[in-house]
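Entry 14. Structure prediction run on the chain below.
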Amino acid sequence: MPIKVLIVDDSALIRSLLTELINSQPDMTVVGVAPDPYIARDRIKALNPDVLTLDVEMPRMDGLVFLEKLMRLHPMAVVMVSSLTEKSSDITLRALELGAFDYVTKPKIDISRGLHESCHEIVDKIREAASAKIKNLVRPPAQLKVEKKNSADVVLPSLNAHIMTTEKLVIIGASTGGTEALKEVLTAMPADSPGILITQHMPAAFTSAFANRLDRLCRISVKEARDGDRVLPGHAYIAPGDRHLLLSRSGANYITQIADAPPVSRHRPSVDVLFRSAANSAGKNCIGVILTGMGDDGANGMLEMKQAGAHTIAQDEASCVVFGMPKEAIARGGVDEISSLSDIPRRIVNCLAVHGQRVIRV
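Output returned:
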């Protein structure tokens, strides 16, 4: 049976374009459209769709109000459709907190061309959403047909670094479902944690808002990384959207490096790039963590971290929204231990204690 999709958007053009893209796929069909949440409510009851695409800013009823009511009364897979603005970034992040599966971004100009260029992303997320268990849990990852992908070689070579410092770092990669997973991990980390570097797949307009939101919630400081930031204990640095984040060294200090190199594993920022840079620059002084996400970005990089002496942790299937990235990292032999999301902060702290770094217990 094809995946049944209901499109909710106040723009007739967006409704028409999304209908065309979705109906071009052999495994999905648009069963209906709605220009506002009130009409959407009636069509959900009548059509029983598998996935809802929902505009962020809706007439007659705020999109977040509608989503909150929907997830409370009729939980279902929802993919948000968002514009790349600071305001919509905050709304979209809140939507993910309320239970939306993921989001896609509306192009600012040439909407038709932009949506067609994003077709692969849109339909992949609909497929993943259709097979996800709502409220955060397990589904079998789809086997996706993807184009030839760059490796981290396009950004930096793999090195056998001789690490002289003993300062510890935590390196984290995540994608679909990662915004909430990262919130759970970072809010549990003690104020004297080692420096933390994070790549979360996210567009440029979203990462600053995401970092600010986490900074308000965490005992550690959280910021969007800038080129040349010194990596300090008690601080987390999030890769800026559409740019790679790398760990580098300046004398005895760790610093962040921001690169505009080509996408790797179809992503910029790429987890593979961050993980390789950590293997090169910190080796056994790292703890690598791979969280929920679609695809395989980070799987090769985590293996490189392990081979460089880092301790590596993967989120388990039962607590993942999408088990793709952790599953691939495990399959390629790059994972030392598998842990539930709720236990990952404790596992990080215990690993640091074993390796001689003093941190307050979570």
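Residues 152-354 form a domain with the Rossmann fold fold (CATH 3.40.50.180).
Filed with the rest of this week's runs.
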